[in-house]
Amino acid sequence: MIGGTGYTGVELLRLLATHSAASLGVITSRSEAGTPVSDLYPSLRGSVDLNFTVPDATALAQCDVVFSATPNGIAMTHARDLLDQGVKLIDLAADFRIKDIPTWEHWYGMTHVCPDLVAGAVYGLPELNRSVIAQAKLVANPGCYPTATTLGLLPLFEGARGDDVALVDASTLVVDAKSGVTGAGRSAKVANLFSEVADSFKAYGAAGHRHHPEIWQNISSVTQQAVGLTFIPHLLPMLRGIHATIYADLLDSAQPLEAIHERFTNYYSNEPFVDILPLGQHPETRSVKSSNVCRIAIHKAVGSNKLVVLSVIDNLTKGAAGQAVQNMNIMFGLDETEGLSSPAIMP
Amino acid sequence: MIGGTGYTGVELLRLLATHSAASLGVITSRSEAGTPVSDLYPSLRGSVDLNFTVPDATALAQCDVVFSATPNGIAMTHARDLLDQGVKLIDLAADFRIKDIPTWEHWYGMTHVCPDLVAGAVYGLPELNRSVIAQAKLVANPGCYPTATTLGLLPLFEGARGDDVALVDASTLVVDAKSGVTGAGRSAKVANLFSEVADSFKAYGAAGHRHHPEIWQNISSVTQQAVGLTFIPHLLPMLRGIHATIYADLLDSAQPLEAIHERFTNYYSNEPFVDILPLGQHPETRSVKSSNVCRIAIHKAVGSNKLVVLSVIDNLTKGAAGQAVQNMNIMFGLDETEGLSSPAIMP
Amino acid sequence: MIGGTGYTGVELLRLLATHSAASLGVITSRSEAGTPVSDLYPSLRGSVDLNFTVPDATALAQCDVVFSATPNGIAMTHARDLLDQGVKLIDLAADFRIKDIPTWEHWYGMTHVCPDLVAGAVYGLPELNRSVIAQAKLVANPGCYPTATTLGLLPLFEGARGDDVALVDASTLVVDAKSGVTGAGRSAKVANLFSEVADSFKAYGAAGHRHHPEIWQNISSVTQQAVGLTFIPHLLPMLRGIHATIYADLLDSAQPLEAIHERFTNYYSNEPFVDILPLGQHPETRSVKSSNVCRIAIHKAVGSNKLVVLSVIDNLTKGAAGQAVQNMNIMFGLDETEGLSSPAIMP
Amino acid sequence: MIGGTGYTGVELLRLLATHSAASLGVITSRSEAGTPVSDLYPSLRGSVDLNFTVPDATALAQCDVVFSATPNGIAMTHARDLLDQGVKLIDLAADFRIKDIPTWEHWYGMTHVCPDLVAGAVYGLPELNRSVIAQAKLVANPGCYPTATTLGLLPLFEGARGDDVALVDASTLVVDAKSGVTGAGRSAKVANLFSEVADSFKAYGAAGHRHHPEIWQNISSVTQQAVGLTFIPHLLPMLRGIHATIYADLLDSAQPLEAIHERFTNYYSNEPFVDILPLGQHPETRSVKSSNVCRIAIHKAVGSNKLVVLSVIDNLTKGAAGQAVQNMNIMFGLDETEGLSSPAIMP
Q: In which domain of life is the source organism classified (chains A, B, C, D) (predicted)?
């Protein structure tokens, strides 16, 4: 692992600690080099015995796969070296998610140092790209909001091969998304203090958020329609969990909800980590806390022609570290659920 | 006060305790009759010396105004007696909010016992109905979601007299609303236990919610357009606060946001309890905690033609008890801000 | 399982779902008979496929072991039948914890129906009674406060065989204990509503709490001294976790803290679920969230002769369901950590 | 006001905004100079119109009183100048609380620059020092833990004049104290992030805390006995509130609790901000949220000879800004409750 002092890192360590086929060789952090991992995270005392080390190319080159759990812009500086040495790379940041380089550079405010690698990177959403992930050397692990949103929308469009009939007007998508505070990371900012966010709620990034182009890219890949997407994120006074409330105009307002529900259920019938709730239910974020599952419910709105999709994930698990482990499992031909089968903790 | 054992009741007691022109004569509760108010609410020890009593028509008839803070369906059984004796009535429940009786009976699941009084009742949103509130005998205090939503939408339409130009297409309204748990009341239900709702988030009532027709009625009163409204409420793991995220298609996509912002600012320039934030800001629910203020921000979405309005209130204050006191002040010719001028507590 | 609709029940289901040697045969609940477990607990969708059933002696008799996760006073009515049929019983309630029957009857307010079974029951704290648990037919799973407190105190006394030197004066014990709200159970009570306990803190049961005699019994079993115990519980506005802050007068005020720390470390050196923190640290309840570990730190107070022991557990895991699984593992000769090795989730 | 960007500052601004006799002339902050106060704290929009300014001796000299709400060690550098110009000073930090200079320098890690002023400063706990506060030029506003603890202990000793009989052994005091997170201030530290402290609980400072000598000094001033004090603070996952659980050995174990309760009630019978709860009750921190009240309950422990005192305050109000306003009221001959009479918000 490169990085690993943030919440995504500790979640990855938690999951790998009980993974039967993975063994953590090295974990790097410039700022914490020399510190036992379990000093920073006492929850891992007895489970993880490594110390953080300064990044060392030789040590990393001996791994089968490297997880990069660093801030945006770091993985792109390591990627070529690792790949050249035959090490597979799963980047949990955003460096390889967006295919259009100018778009990426606009939203992330930096110049991309290896655009050629972006072209070959595989967007690591197994429900969309499982077969190519299996062959991938470089996987761009999806963002948390895009994971919850894309899984909630996928069954509504023609699909990557255009086989299905689209059910909704892709130009009318509204995604009102809410995230727990761990999504904001572990850096020392006044805005993320307990006393600033507890017992309160707000929208943020209403003028534009980096996950907008990522969601747009995903949906555009499965529909011929022009995608019009409104995306507004909000900050929840809780630790883990993303809830995406998705609104879209039905193309056929007479379509019975039962038929749409059946389509969702069939679409995900072989997916180990997507659960379509019975009609009438509403998913709670706690129902996926610490698990790699995405739970989805669909409703028809009163007073309009809109379909409403409710999609929840744990931002640190299916929205980050769990999905990274799922991708690793696929890349190495392991059982896709290995290390990921514990039910959510409740409550 | 009739009722007063719930959170709306204790908030009303808190506000009246420092109101210079109001004196609480009697507070009724069948279930708590005989109990000192301050036994149920130690926060009021030293501020409120009354005991709860069984409802007594004679005692209530001596009041200038009665607040009814009971469950839905109770105030309508008391209203005629009180009004006949010259007592003004402010109902904090829903009995007199909806003008269309079949609609009310559909959503509230009971037969209305005094439809004639509904016709004469005034919907107590001062920013919409101040002058008629001043003359009213019976005020229907608005619901919490409708208050936040309606205040966020009012400046966008022609207005009650049709003078203005509508800015948005009324058929495209999406209201994604979130409420703190106090909005669910104080009855003993498993669903509202701390261990059920803490550190979690969910939508509820996606198949239809009672506040839908109330919002629809409000907006329909200020536009000639047909109103198409999607309304989905959610439950926040926090005590107080409502955040309405409102989406609407702009009729003129070239309209600069600055002009819309100016319209909001002008619209509410004389309102003591509506605050339009500077462009670029996002209101936090905590910025209105325990206060009667509604704070509103507006944004233009990236990737679509939608205006996004963010509106926050404290559900127990501007969304219930505070607005009731504001209505009382107006009905009795008092300074409208009397008893309501304390800033929000922070944090 | 008998019972299983409460938080202890769902935690037990979570742990058993990934236990390699246990298979859940039947789960009973009179109130939820016929309901799929995963309807009540969507977190278990895909992991637990059983329905709740009415208690059926025949079905229970086919199990190797029955967990009773019912309110106090129920297990004692089932115990003899199960034991007579050769089924082992682990009671997660209090029916078999207290050896002195009049004391039990005083604190639990009912008549015990099988005092003879109490005598043969084993108090299921493995760190105290491992060898007898291995032979037990009937295990009384300890209470949550007593688990955290007893583990924090055990190394300070002579021990069950009187071999060691006592370090503290057993007549001076003060246990200031704090519990998350899940410890209060899942019944519908106003006092446990989110809106009643969130963002607040209080002591409760200061006039006497049922866990007092249980702690007293435990400590009295490992010292010749007369035990004087003050125990005050408090309610934390959080889901899971117990923190016991324990004060005791040192018998030798000159004893260096390092020596006491070494004694703790040695005492628990072979224990898989007790972790003594390095000197100077303070355990956080989140460091054991969802795990079966108890973490302990010791300090010497400024300004007095008191030793301060800080002990944390997850009340649902080491304080209930996890310890029950640990006991099952011991009773059936399994690896004691089977099903219990996942690190705490963080945060 | 000097300082005012922290939580104590914004609480002081909230209280002064509705104070009938106080007008805020200037508020200083080097880091935020030029920023409108209401930009930093939108909760004050419409209530406070000032901008932060750089500290300016001339402007401050025109005030009747200056509140210093800065970090420790700042007020002592301003004090002499202000006092020399006839400006009264209320320091909300610790600079003037401890009479013994070496003790202060030990705990606060700096050299005191004006020890002579310490001698003349008045410790601003009105319940202890009302008459001298009325004459004071320089008031040291007490710490939050010391306020809750001292008020809980005062009635148990001989009193400053030695008139009463002591009820407890002063050498046996244990104070297990818990504070909401606002007590930790508003600086950007990882340890105070929401994701670090939410849904968790821990002790801190077990090896020694700065409030220990302050409590010791207070108690020593009202008893001839030698004071032995153990003080352990803990961090609660909530915003506001302190709960001190205080243990002390009764000198006469036969003393009925009723008599002790009567003594507490009589002791505080004329105090506007101390409320002794009826026997059997437990104070909740929320019962004083945003108010200047301290609520106290007393219990006799089961199984020992200890008296247990439970004392709650809001750390930002009675524990800081509210007490500062109370002191100002006393110093200027105003009604002591002016600006402080709003009941606690609930919930």
A: Bacteria
Does residue D106 belong to the interface with chain C, where contact is any CB pair within 8 Å? no
Distance of CA D252 to the CA centre of its chain: 31
pLDDT at residue D13 is higher than 90: yes
Q: How far apart are CA B189 and CA B47, in angstroms?
A: 30
Provide the chain A residues 235-264 that lie in CB contact (below 8 A) with chain B.
Answer: 236-241, 243, 245, 247
Judged on CB neighbours under 10 Å (0-12, 13-18, 19+), C141 is buried
Question: What fold is seen in the domain B2-120?
Answer: Rossmann fold (3.40.50)
For residues D38 and C1, give the distance between their C-alpha atoms in angstroms, rounded to a whole number: 58
The pLDDT assigned to A4 comes to: 86
Check residue D141 and report its DSSP letter.
P
A42: contact with C, CB 8 A cutoff: yes
Is the CB of residue C275 less than 8 Å away from at least one CB of chain A? yes
Q: Return the HEC string of B159-172.
A: CCCCCCCCCECHHH
- Nearest residue on chain C to A285, alpha-carbon basis: C43
Using CB atoms, list chains with 3+ pairs below 8 Å to chain A. Answer: B, C, D
Average pLDDT over residues D85-95: 98
Task: Give the C-alpha separation, C72 to C108, whole Å.
Answer: 8
| Other residues' Cβ atoms within 10 Å of the Cβ of residue B256 | 10
Q: How far is A109 from chain D (nearest CA, A)?
A: 24
Residue D160: pLDDT above 90?
A: no
What is the rounded CA–CA span in Å between residue B178 and residue C190?
A: 23
* pLDDT score, position B163: 86
Percent of chain D whose pLDDT exceeds 70: 100
At A174 the pLDDT is 98
pLDDT at A160: 83
CB contacts, 8 Å: B345 with chain C? none
| Residue B144 annotated in active site | yes
Report yes or no: C234 and C201 within 8 Å, Cβ to Cβ: yes
Cα separation, C93 vs C227, whole angstroms: 25
Cα(A320)–Cα(A241) distance, integer angstroms: 11
> What Cα–Cα distance (Å) separates residue D347 from each residue in B14, B143, C173, D9, D277?
11, 19, 35, 23, 19
Taking the Cβ of residue A198 and every Cβ of chain D, the question of whether any pair is shorter than 8 Å is answered with yes
Domain C7-120 is classified in which CATH homologous superfamily? NAD(P)-binding Rossmann-like Domain (3.40.50.720)
Give CA torsion, residues B327, B328, B329, B331, to 10 deg: 90
Domain ranges (residues) in chain D: 2-120, 146-313
Q: Which residue has the tokens 């609790």?
A: D257
Are D120 and D100 in contact by the 8 Å Cβ rule? The answer is no
Would you call D277 and B42 a contact, using CB atoms and an 8 Å cutoff?
yes
Q: Do B17 and D343 touch (CB under 8 A)?
A: yes
Closest CA to B277 of A190, A245, D36: D36
| Model confidence pLDDT, tens digit, residues C255-297 | 999 999 999 999 999 999 999 999 999 999 999 999 999 999 9
Which residue among C187, C188, C195 places its CB closest to the CB of B239?
A: C195
pLDDT at C106: 97
Asked: is C146-313 a CATH 3.30.360.10 domain? The reply is yes
Cβ separation D341–B289 shorter than 8 A: no
Contacts of D106 (CB under 8 A, 6+ apart): none
Other Cβ atoms less than 10 A from the Cβ of A165: the count is 12
Taking residues C64-80, report their average pLDDT: 96
pLDDT for D51-65, tens place per residue?
A: 999 999 899 999 999
Catalytic residues of D: 144
Distance between B315 CA and the closest CA of chain C, angstroms: 13
- The answer to whether residues A178 and B203 touch, using CB atoms and an 8 Å cutoff, is no
* Token representation of residue D211: 């409030």
